[in-house]
Predict the structure.
Amino acid sequence: SGLQARDFISLTSLADRIAGVATRLNAFRNRTYTVGCGGGITIREIALLVAQRYEARFGLACELRVLSEEPREMQPLRVTSARAAEAGLLAPSLERMSAEIDLIFDLLKGN
């Protein structure tokens, strides 16, 4: 159904976190971290955003087909947003995500 929410993080925020860990390897040795932004967006919203960016970028129609309406209701996403904010991770804006989708299209196209 695409109504499931996920905690997406922008590529630039993820790269910043990786760079932060890489510069302080001793402080992070033998630890596991889950990186998120503390917010949720549905799979359908991401798919619609990608379709919109594809159409705008290439001038070609991009049809989104939902194969099932199950689950019918979105389950709430439970993330510790206070910890995400503490780490400087904010929910990615649609504008930032749009720019990153365009970047991915450029990379795939070979530009």
